[in-house]
């Protein structure tokens, strides 16, 4: 069995973000989700403590870049904050967002 530890999830992180943040590569996202009894497409609650692997191969160049810039990948989309503008011919304005050529 692989070695594991605990990790607290940051706001708006998905499994790929966590994998990149911890290992410098996204290809462990599925393994992390499975380890935690989740699907890679499931949302993860901010502040939730999950299990992570401590013995995976690292991409040190990516990790160094993230750490030197104090970057924490967090790419989840919050649908409640999305602004959806009306679409379609009934809403388009000629020469503004409906260009006739």
Note down, in words, how this protein is organized.
- With 101 residues, this protein is of the alpha+beta class.
- It has one domain (4-81).
- It is 25% helix and 10% strand.
- It has 3 helices and 2 strands.
- It has helices at residues 15-23, 29-35, 60-68; strands at 4-8, 49-53.
- A two-stranded antiparallel ribbon has the order 1-2.
- α1 crosses α2 (29-35) and α1 crosses α3 (60-68).
- The longest helix is centred in the first third of the chain and has 9 residues, at 15-23.
- The model has no long low-confidence stretch (mean pLDDT 90).
Task: Give a summary of the structure in a few sentences.
The chain is α+β, with helices and mostly antiparallel strands and 101 residues long. The chain has one domain (4-81).
Descriptive tags:
101 residues, alpha+beta, two-stranded antiparallel sheet, 25% helix, 10% strand
Number of helices, counting only DSSP H or I runs of 4 residues or more: 3
Order of helices and strands: EHHEH
The largest β sheet comes out as: 2 strands, antiparallel
Question: What percent of the residues sit in helical stretches (DSSP H or I)?
Answer: 10-25%
Low-confidence stretches: none
Quaternary structure type: single chain
Number of self-contained structural domains = 1
Radius of gyration: 19 Å
- Number of β-strand runs: 2
Mean pLDDT: 90
Distance between the first and last residues' Cα = 64 Å
What spatial form do the alpha-carbon principal axes imply? Answer: elongated
Biggest sheet, strands in spatial order?
Answer: 1-2
Measured by DSSP, the beta-strand proportion falls in 5-15%
Structural class: alpha+beta
């Amino acid at each position: 069995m692989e070695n594991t530890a605990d990790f607290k999830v940051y706001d708006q992180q998905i499994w790929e973000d966590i994998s990149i943040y911890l290992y410098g590569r996204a290809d462990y996202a599925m393994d992390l989700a499975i380890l935690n009894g989740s699907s890679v497409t499931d949302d993860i609650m901010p502040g939730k403590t999950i299990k992570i692997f401590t013995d995976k191969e690292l991409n040190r160049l990516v990790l160094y870049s993230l750490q030197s810039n104090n970057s924490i990948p967090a790419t989840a989309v919050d649908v409640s904050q999305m602004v959806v503008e009306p679409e379609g011919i009934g809403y388009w304005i000629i020469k503004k967002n409906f260009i006739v050529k």
